[in-house]
Design a protein that fits this description.
By secondary structure, this protein is mainly α. It is built from 4 helices and no strands.
Length: 77
């Protein structure tokens, strides 16, 4: 019974704006065909567009933050 109450109370919490942006950006990146998300250059072009499209607050540069999110999801050559 206690676990149900805790879970229900967590559902009401809002995610931080940066976390929501991260999830959205990663979903958009992963929805691209594999051949369009292979290289660092492709990730850089995507990150530039995503930094303009998603206006979230973070400490530092939005472009660099997005590149950090994409790095583990970019195929290594």
């Amino acid at each position: 019974m206690l676990a149900v109450v805790v879970i229900q109370s967590l559902k009401g919490l809002k995610m931080r704006p940066e976390h929501e942006a991260r999830r959205t950006v990663i979903r958009e990146w992963m929805s691209l065909p594999r051949e369009r998300r292979q290289t660092e250059e492709q990730a850089a072009a995507f990150a530039t567009q995503a930094a303009e499209k998603h206006k979230f607050t973070c400490s530092g540069d939005r472009y660099r933050r997005i590149m950090t999110w994409l790095s583990p999801r970019t195929a290594k050559s």
